Amino acid sequence: MTHKTDVVIIGSGPVGLFAVFELGLLNLKAHLIDNLDRVGGQCAELYPEKPIYDIPAYPKITGQELTDKLISQIKPFEPTFHLNQQADSIEKVDDGWKIVTSEGTTINARCIVIAAGAGSFVPRKPPIDNIAEFEGTSVFYAVRNKELFKNKKILIVGGGDSALDWTNDLATIADVTLMHRRKEFRAAPDSVNKMLNLEKEGKIKFLHGQLKSLSGNNKMINEIKYSHEEKEYSIGVDYLLPFFGLKMELGPIANWGINLNENLIKVDTEKFETSEPSIFAIGDINTYPGKLKLILSGFHESALMAQKCFAYCYPDKKNVFRYTTSSKDLHKKLGL
User: Fold this and answer.
1) SS3 assignment for 70-98
2) Is the pLDDT of residue 49 over 80?
3) Once rounded to an integer, what is the mean pLDDT over residues 106-116?
4) Range of the domain at 112
């Protein structure tokens, strides 16, 4: 599918979301690409319940609350989200850029804004040599379509929230086995209790162990070998869901020819443009003298970036600066 917009934002954390607001005030439409299956970036994925104390006007706000309020704030501008995919490649075209994602989505935009935090979240994978053969067909690092697993034998591996939550959820439609090195978990106590009750009732199985190898045919697993206390065992399954957490990588951005410094993107502080004209970087992904890695800093950077994006998108128009407190035109945009 091909889309056209004014600006593509790579990353949907707080800074990327606020960028939608600043762009929207200037009549610039935005599409956002994120490797995660939800918006909010680190705030939503890593610490949704963790309080943040340095957001103006909020003495205390959690990561998820901040995300929810930003989503509400940008709702009038109707951004389009492309989740569960990353921006794989960019190509310079006559009217800006062509961005192609890992899911084959193509977006044509005049400007690109990189708001990817410290990089893309990617799954930590089990150290099994042939696991790539089965990825996307019988090995999955996220659940996107529950119906795929209906009435199937599933092995879920891990001890965190994702592993326990999906064990509890999929137990209603599938034959689920949970595997972990020990019967101590990092997940929320409520999720652990639910899993233990399901095991007690015989609705799921639990195994101590560590993955050793996979075997199968035509990209589909039929047997998994695992070890526990120096002994090796095997289990027949249809699908493997390893939830070993996430790690951060700069990803394809590193190959886009942008000036980098220790995996951070150099920008000027007038407009937060990179070494490549019409590509910008805001938030923790950028670097400049005096840089502070604060959400607040990213909000400021978003405002200045939007002004320059307007110049690229409307080169023949003059941008008249207006305040949201007094501009009737801006009030109309915001639905006030």
Assistant:
1) HHHHHHHHCCEEECCCCEEEEEEECCEEE
2) no
3) 95
4) 2-122+247-333
